[in-house]
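Hi again,

Forgot to attach this to my earlier email, sorry! This is the prediction with zinc ion bound. I've pasted everything inline since the attachment limit keeps bouncing my files.
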Amino acid sequence: MKGADKIHYYEVAISGSPLRSTFSYHFDDELAVGQRVAVNFAGRNVIGYIAGIGSKPQFKTKPISKPLENQVYLSPEDVALINWTVENYLASIGKVFDLFFPPGKLLKSNSHVIPISPELPFSTPLKMSDALKLLGKEQFQKLKSQRKLKILHSYEKKLPSKRRIKLLKLPLSIKTLESLKLTKSQKKVIDYLLSVEKATPRELMNALSLKSRSPIDTLLRKEILTLEEVEEDETDRWTIEAIEKLTAEQEHVREAIVKDFSGVHYIFGLTGSGKTEVYFKIMERVLNRGKSVIYMVPEVSLTPQLMARIRGAFPGREVRVYHSYMSPSKRQRIWLDAVNGEIDILVGTRSALWIPIQNTGLIIVDEEHDSSFYQQTPPHYDAVEVAIKKGKLYGIPVILGSATPRVERYFRAKSGEFKLHSLVNRPVGQLPELEIRDLRNNKDYIIPRKTFEEIEKTVKLGHQVFVFVHRKGFSNYVVCANCGNILKCPNCDISLTYHKHDGILKCHYCGYTIPPPTKCERCGSKALSARGFGTERVEHELQKRFPDLSIMRMDRETISNPNQYEKALRKIESKEAKIVVGTKMIAKGLDFPSIGLVVVIDADRIINLPNYDSAENAFQLISQISGRSGRGVHGRAIIQTFEPEHRVMKTALENDYKGFFETEIEIRKLLKYPPFSIFVEIIVEAEKEIQCQNAAKELYEKLVNTVKGSEILEPVTPAVKKLFGKFRMKIHLKLFDRGELRNLLKVLQKNPAGVDVIVNSNGGSL
Ligand code: ADP
Ligand code: ZN
Ligand code: ZN
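C-alpha cells for the complex follow:
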C-alpha cells in the first residue's frame, strides 16, 4: 500500500483531442510539467501531456499509466508558449502540445563524438558518455561550439538517409571511344557525357531531346556506358553563390539591428531590395557566436531556392528544412538533431517553429504578411504571433520582413511595438514599371491582343514571362445555356471546375470528380458550356498562339511536392521555360534575374472576396507578383482589371504601400476591424441545414449574454454554405478587450462539438 501523502495530482492534456480542457490524474511519483505520459482516457490508451500540477480534486481520479520518456523535452518557456497559444487562439490544448512533437514514437539514439581538430585528446570516435567524462561538460560545450568536434547519432531504426540516384558514366578512355563505330544518336550521348562527366538518364534525354532511351540502353549493353547507383552528393545540390558585400542601405539596416539586438525588428523592404541578404549577414553573426537560427518561410515552395542560397552563403553549416510534406521518419531525425543542438540553421514552415531547438539565437520570419502562416486547420494559430511570443519568452530577437506588411503589424511597428527599418532600392535591377490594362470594352478578356504582343516582345529579347492566374483548372464552372443550371459538387456548395487535360470536372474543396456529363441533369439540354477560366485555359491559349515556345504551368495540379517544385524552379533558372503560367505559387519570394514581364490576368477576383482583409490581400498579391519582374533585366508588369479606378490598383501601380496603408487603417478604425479589435469567426457545422441554423442561433444568444465587451453579428450563411457534406453557418465577433476571450472560451467549453473557432487576428497590443 502506498501512503496517501505520496500521491501526486496532475492536469493532463490529451493528445489529438479537440477538447479545450485538461483532465485530473494521479501518479505515485513526481513528474515534470511538459512530460509525455501514457493515460487511459475514455477507455482508450492514449498519449497525454502534463500541463500542470494539480491538487486532490473532489472526485476520484484515474492513475497515469507511465511516463513515456524520462527525458523532458519541453522547457517551462515552451509550456508557457502553449498556454499562451491556447488562451489567445482558443485552441485545444492537447493539439497544441502535439505541435511540439514529430509524428510517431520517438526513436532512441546512440550518440558518438567525432574528433575534428587534432588538438583533442582522442582521435577516434568515442561514445558520448565517455567523451563527456573525459572532457567535462563545459569544455565539451566549448569545443562543440568551436566546431572542433561533432556529434553523430545512430538511430535505433534504419532510416533512408540521402536520396539515391542512378548516374551514367563513361568508363573508357577518349582514345578507345574514338575508335568505336557509333550511330549518330549514340555519338551525341557520348559527346554530352564527355562534357558533363555524369548525368541521370532522364537529364540526358532531356538535354539531347531524345525520343527514346534506346541509344542509352544499347551503349549500356555494349558496356560503353555504366549506370551506377550513388547517394546524391550534397555538393551536387542546387547552390546559389553568395553576394560579396551589402549596399550602404542594407548595411545601415544591418547595423541598426545588431546594435539593438533584442525585441522585434521589422524590415519593410520593397521586393528585391535585398532583405534576404540582410538576414544572412545578421545570421552569420549569431552563428559565429555558437547559436542557431530558426528561419521561417510561409510555404514549402519557398524552401528550394532559399536553401540553394543558404548553401552558397553558409558552406559547412548544418542546415535543415522541416515541413509537413516530409516523411515522419525524416521529421523525427531532424527533430532529434534539433533537440540535441546539432542544427545551425533550421528552415521551415510554421510547423518548424515548435521544434524545441537548442540554443536558438534568432528567429526570422520572412514574408510575414503571408496568410499561410495562419494555420487553417485546428489547432488554429498565427505562427507570426507565436514566433513573436516565443522570442519574448526566451529573450531571443525576432526579425520580421516584408515588402507588403500586414496592415495590423505595420500599425504596431509604427506605434513603436516593433523597431521599423526600410529598404527602398534594389541592389540589382530596378523596380518594374507597372501598367494597368483596362479590360472594359475588351472582347478578349483573358489575354487581349496587346498583352500577347508584349509577351512576344519580351521573349524575343531573351527574357522570361510570368503569367499569374487566380485559379487552377481550365474553366471555373459549367453552365447549362438552356436553363442556367450550374454543375455543383454534391458535398460542397461550390461549382465544379473543368480540367481539360484530365478530362474531368473537379471540386477544388473536397476533390470530388466526375467525367463531364453530356447533358444537363435538370432540363436534359445538351447545351452545356464551360465558362470562366483558370491556369490550364491560359496555358492553352498561350500555347495556341506560341506553338514553339516552352511554356510551363505551375499549380497544385502540376506540382504536388517540393521535389517537383525544385525541378520547376531549376527549369526557370536555366531559362528552359520561357513562359510560366501559375497560381499564387509563382507570386511568392522567388528571385530570378531574367523575368522581364509579369502579367496578372485577373486582378479583380482577389479584391472582391468577402473578407475584412481582402483589399490588403489583393494589394499584397499584386505587388508581390509584379515584384518578380526586373530583378536583373529591365522589368515590366501588366495588371489586367475591370476596375482600374480601385484604390488597390492605384496604390499598387505606384508601389505606394504607405498610401494604401493610410486609407486602409482609416477604414479599419471606422469599422472597428483589426488592429482595433480581435476578430473572431465561429463556424457551426451540422448534417442538416435546419439543425445548423438552430445551433447557430442558440450559440449566438449565449454569446450575447456572456461575451460583453464585444460586437457580435447575427449568424450568416457563408459564401460556401456546404463543405465536405456539412452545412455551415458563421458568427462574427469583434472583441474590444483581450479579457473577453476568456468569456468566449467559457461558452465554447460548454458547447457540443461541431463548432470551429477561428481567432483571425491577434489584435496586437489590445
Ligand atoms: P528580397 O528578399 O528583399 O526580395 P533579395 O535578398 O532576394 O531581396 O535580393 C534580390 C536580389 O538582389 C538577389 O538576387 C540578391 O542576390 C541580389 N542582391 C541583394 N543584395 C545584394 C548586394 N548587396 N549586392 C549584390 N546583389 C545583391
Ligand atoms: Zn439545363
Ligand atoms: Zn466538394
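The mean pLDDT is 87. The two ends are 53 Å apart (CA to CA).

That should be everything now.

G.
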